[in-house]
Each structure stands twice: as structure tokens, then as C-alpha cells.
Design a protein that fits this description.
Shape: globular
Strand order of the largest sheet: 2-1-3-4-5-6
Order of helices and strands: HHEEEEHHHEE
Structural class: alpha+beta
Number of domains: 1
Number of helices: 5
Number of strands: 6
Strand content: 15-25%
Length: 148
């Protein structure tokens, strides 16, 4: 249970306490992300792993990668499904190439939603570890913009 509690605390560290205390918290389980705490404000906090980095990132398979991220409601509806799908594929033993192919196919078949206007996230944690090159990255907000 300690690892789960640590993961919950790390996920919550992504956003100010006034936001994260009422957010849904998801943790990585054996088969993918699962809800650890139900939220009430529409936001979702998780700790992403290295395989959610850009495909050409040299740290794509880095086992130390931990990126606490708290998604607003728009990002929870449209970005989070991509993270969940990628994670499921990786945990099922798919290669990076197979994951890329499956994500592209899911987007083409409209199984994954297009990015919603206003989708953004908090990445304010000082405890995350993004890569060997960057280590503990600067607290920031990210706005998701995808073009076709």
C-alpha cells in the first residue's frame, strides 16, 4: 500500500492543493491506470511514465521517468484516453512501433477523441523526474494543441 500512497501523493503534487484535493487520482496498476480516489471537480491527476513522452524522446523507455500531471476536465476527456491506451499497449508487451501504429489506427477510427479546445494540465511538482537530461523539470502549465 505504501507504493500506492506514494503514487497518490506524487500525482496530487502536480497541481496546487486547492485543486488536487478534489481531483480524481489515478494510479498505475498491473493492467494500466485505475482510479484510486474519486474526484468531484472534473480534474484528474496521474503520474505518467516515460512511454508517454514524445516518440523520438531518447528517454522513452527510461524506468525512472515519473511525470506528475493534473489534467483539467477537457484534457481528462481527450488527452487522458491516449495516455491510458498507450499504457495498456506497453503493459501488454507491445513494441514502440506497435504502440504508434495502434494509436494512429485508434485516432483514424475515431476511437480516441480529438483534443478538446481548452485542454490543459498542471505540472507543478518538484518531485517528478522527466528524464536523465532534464531531471526534475521546472513547474509549468501545458496547453494541448493538436492539428491534423
Amino acid at each position: 500500500m505504501e507504493d500506492r500512497n506514494s503514487e497518490i501523493a506524487l500525482a496530487r503534487s502536480a497541481a496546487p492543493e486547492s485543486i488536487s484535493r478534489d481531483a480524481e487520482i489515478m494510479v498505475l496498476g498491473r493492467d494500466g491506470y485505475e482510479t484510486a480516489i474519486k474526484g468531484t471537480n472534473g480534474l484528474v491527476c496521474i503520474v505518467e511514465r516515460s512511454w508517454t513522452a514524445p516518440i523520438d524522446d531518447p528517454g522513452f523507455w527510461n524506468p525512472k521517468g515519473r511525470a506528475p500531471i493534473c489534467l483539467n476536465a477537457a484534457a481528462a476527456r481527450t488527452y487522458l484516453p491516449r495516455t491510458i491506451k498507450k499504457t495498456g499497449l506497453i503493459l501488454a508487451g507491445r513494441t514502440k512501433a506497435q504502440m504508434i501504429e495502434a494509436i494512429a489506427a485508434a485516432i483514424d477510427k475515431e476511437e480516441l477523441p480529438p483534443m478538446e479546445l481548452g485542454a490543459m494540465c498542471y505540472m507543478l511538482s518538484k518531485q517528478g523526474y522527466l528524464s536523465d537530461r532534464d531531471g526534475h523539470w521546472h513547474p509549468h502549465l501545458m496547453f494541448f494543441v493538436f492539428t491534423s
